[in-house]
Amino acid sequence: MRIDTIRAAETRPTTVRHDDALISAKGVSLVLSRQLILQNIDLSVPKGSFVSLIGPSGCGKSTLLKLMAGLLQPTEGSVSIAGLPPVEAARKRMIGLVFQEANLLPWKNAVDNASMLLSIADRSLSRAELRARGQEMLELVGLGDSAHKQPHELSGGMRQRVAIARALALDPAVLLMDEPFGALDAITRDSMGQSLLDIWQRTGKTIVLVTHSIDEAIHLSRHVHVLGIKPGRITESLDIDLPYPRDLSLTEEPEFVRLVVQLRTMLRESHQPGASS
Ligand SMILES: Nc1ncnc2c1ncn2[C@@H]1O[C@H](COP(=O)(O)OP(=O)(O)OP(=O)(O)O)[C@@H](O)[C@H]1O
Description:
Layout: H1 3-7, E1 21-32, E2 35-46, E3 50-54, H2 61-69, E4 76-81, H3 86-91, E5 95-98, H4 110-114, H5 116-121, H6 127-140, H7 156-168, E6 174-178, H8 186-203, E7 206-210, H9 214-220, E8 223-228, E9 233-239, H10 254-270
Parallel strand pairs: 3-7, 3-8, 5-6, 6-7
Antiparallel strand pairs: 1-2, 1-4, 8-9
Helix pairs in contact: 6-7, 9-10
The structure holds adenosine-5'-triphosphate (ATP).
Protein name: ABC transporter ATP-binding protein
Pfam families: ABC_tran
Domain ABC transporter: 16-256
């Protein structure tokens, strides 16, 4: 695919402020296997913010997250984290990743799983130091009492909490989360969302969350970006001006319901291939 084909593509109408951004994507397009996957993404994630990406299946949300993590390189444009290329930011332990599957090591207990990435990143730490850090992180995610449990003794939600603890143990500036609660039942999902909000407010991390849930996106985020399909591009951005701290009772408020309707309408439009914003 020719780059000028990408350039000729539609641009997002809104102005993106990059000056206070911790994560910044400027004019990002990505071609994989000769297909335009992402087109002209302009995105700014302010430091300390909670941002969600939502859009139809296959629109490129995970791919965009991989670009932010430095796991893929854009064909056109640039991505930066605190002014650094993501690969460099990852090397400096500035990026924590959480996926839909917890992927814990089955032969290690919760506390050793929580400190596992840290043990690789910092070989100078003693076993006691790693354990202490793992325990601290387990307490942060509400699993302080489960340190010695093996993964098979933990529920799906508990395993995801360990995965979040494992990412946080590196003390990253940025937490990139790809459908972290997608495999959980609705009630566990609600409680995980609430825990994530608490963790976010206590740690001040910058969080980017990929989700399919409209309610989750509105409940948790300050900003929601809607991606359209074929090619993946940002079609709409919505600020969620609801006050924090937020709890689940918020979901019954008229303003929350209004935002759900607004976001659902945006999402419906984003399902149209090549739909303009
Ligand atoms: N390595 C690759 N080579 C070619 N195409 C790819 C590659 N990785 C992803 N794609 C394509 O990129 C598009 C976006 O995929 P991606 O997984 O980012 O979508 P998504 O929005 O996260 O989907 P879902 O919500 O279903 O998880 C899809 O059409 C996918 O087939």
